[in-house]
Amino acid sequence: MFDLAIKGNRIITPDGMQPAVVLIKDGLIADVVTVIPGEAVKKILDIHDYVLMPGITDPHVHINEPGRTEWEGFTTATRAALASGITTLVDMPLNAHPVTTTVAALEAKIRSANLFTNCGYWGGVVPGNVAELEPLIEKGVLGFKAFLTHSGIDDFPNVTEDDLRKAMPVIAKHGLPLLVHCELSTPMPASLVGTYSAYLDSRPAVWEENAISLMIRLCGEFNCRVHIVHLSAASALPQIVKAKAEGLPLTVETAQHYLYFNAEDIPDGNMAFKCAPPIRERENNELLWLALKSGIIDLVATDHSPSPSHLKEGGYPASWGGISSLQLALPALWTAARQRQVPLTQLAQWLCSAPTLLAGTHTYKGKIAKGYDADLVIWNPDQSFTVIPEQLQHKHPITPYAHETLYGVALQTYLKGVKVYDEGLYTATPQGENILRL
Questions:
Q1: Angle between helices 205-222 and 237-245 (to 10 degrees)
Q2: pLDDT tens across 388-400, in order?
Q3: Which residue of 186, 213, 239, 341 shows the fewest CB atoms closer than 10 Å?
Q4: Is-contact 330 408, C-beta < 8 A?
């Protein structure tokens, strides 16, 4: 007997979008068939023309718990994720306190994790912690994150090339990815006041170009998987194309805000838009779209980096640089994608299947296929809504998408076949699991 059969006209499978029936039993996808079988099914759900997609994996989220729980926290972050069809998050090693650069810090984070979604964890690479890398691997981190410029908090300092030369052989030995914030910074100009244009000039594209050049060189030298997070500078794309053509184990993500917003439209003084690297000009961002559609950029992740409102004060030099968008991951990307005639299947690749390859969960998550976890989202790509910040599940209602009209509404979200979100209602106690590489 099957627990659930979901029947619909737009089921996104590895073979494309098609009419199908997804059979679920004991938390797994038992089969994908064309008609409801004769044997017993406890419940049949006909979603007609709504889309059934694998649950989204967002591999770039700052949950900030423990230690800076007033910034976000597992409960609010994972509830917000469900409302966007996200079923798995991978939490960054900052901005929690302590940062996840030791086993003790990882254990403290896991103890604090009240999960409405599944959640995995990246470890951190900082100067002097190379001896902690293998113990963190043994405890189940999915990979590591490093910064090449100041991270924004002093307890997660940036690494140098010398630090990377010590860490990358260890990471490569275990086949794990090294995620890198790629900006090699120079001193910011004193004129950094007032305007968004001045802020943009203070973090030029050449910072990204130089950092990515360094990481490509080290990737080839150590044969270490390198993942460039939140690419914003299209001028770095030619060297990425060359590295991939040479077969280097290099992957790249960009973020929704680089694909949705353009620098020309950002109002001066609105710190909800401040992030690093910055949102660049329209011409640059259209090149990001071309790279994403052609496969040069592998996936899209939010880089959800929230903070209390008082940290978004003080102008461009002093305010926190991070964008809150976790609950809007699906509609923000889809709204921009539908304007460019992107098929739903490609959207699912960027949000569902490619992130699981990065996280190492691709053998059991990210596909509607036999034997995979029944982590699923039912959504309406044709329904629009206006973003009301106070209605978001994020701990703080600060978002550059405020009052934007977006398309794509997550109607129901399932974890292992259990409906956990239903049109604004949370229908189960926290069901999420820790995703550990053991």
A1: 10
A2: 999 999 999 999 9
A3: 341
A4: yes
